[in-house]
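Input/output pair, single chain:
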Amino acid sequence: MDIYTQRSGWKVLFGIVGLSILGITLYYSNYLAQKLEETEEKNKVIYVESLFFIATNKDYNADISLQSYIQDQFSLPLIMEEVDGSVSGFHWGGDKNNDVEYLKAKVKEFIDSGQEPIDYAAADSKIYIFNSPLVRLIKLYPIVQVLLVGLFIALGYYIFNTSRGAEQNRVWAGMAKETAHQLGTPISAIIAWIEHLKLSNNDNPDQLEILEELTKDVDRLDLIADRFSKIGSAPELEKTDLFSQLNEIKNYMQRRASRRVKFLFPAELNNIDVNINKHLFSWVLENLIRNSLDAMGGSGEIAARVEEEGDMVSIFLSDTGKGIPANKFKTIFAPGYSTKQRGWGLGLSLAKRIIENYHKGKIFVKSSKLNEGTTFAIKLPRA
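Output:
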């Protein structure tokens, strides 16, 4: 199991835990709201029975202070509607107790919700008793909590990803520069030894031919070191004909591939100029071709085509290899991901950084079918 499969497993686990916490919160909040509503319903009954008792008992009927006390102690908002349609409000707060239009609107809202007013026969009126705002706030609390927690998680995820990406950038850049630095010393020494051997074998054509090939390989190593040294720095881009660059890369890779591999690259029919760093761009294409060669097992076809799309130029590189599962289209560009026994899984990750960070383009898997092949797409802005 690779680290990305493990990471997906952890995400699922955290998701389950998070949903469980959210479910418990919703259940408990609804439970509290329900209990509060039940308590308020009991208080409504007690209030109405208290008023009825006072109204029907002549010993208390004239006690205005007792009626006022009960009215003040009962804290739920209510509206009393007389026979003539006049309304009085209690416990609505501020000037709303005397706002007739507001109180009538609340009465309509009460009736529209399917509730029935209490007929207070003793005073020949109707009483509309509403639940306290606290019930509504408790019901809204889970939603507010979900929004706040979601915002916190999103912010934390963004900060974590940004810092992790910046850290990865520093690690890859530092590793690349250190590799270039370490290659520099032996390359310089090899070049000196080759020059010494050339002087010692001026009269031996066979040896000079071998030394010439060694010189080409050392030049290649020097080019690789130069590429690595540019990782992490802003490379210089120059206007380049795309077709000539593609064919130069093809010629280099074709000489190092099996003869059973066919390279189908477009001919240089017309100029399409793009701003690229030749060393880094070549490295990206070579890396993709090398992966294709590994996927095909030494035989098959590698094809390239170029399409113009407004201000962008698209390069499609296809092979007839073993393909990539659809759920790995994005994962293959993650640092450390590799299907090979050797390698660190940095090739496609660096390729993505080179194309997107330095060349302001895009690189992605356009299509792939298992045991049929894969097509990578690279989009670059026109020069």
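The CA atoms of residues 77 and 92 lie 5 Å apart. Residues 238-381 form a domain with the Heat Shock Protein 90 fold (CATH 3.30.565.10).
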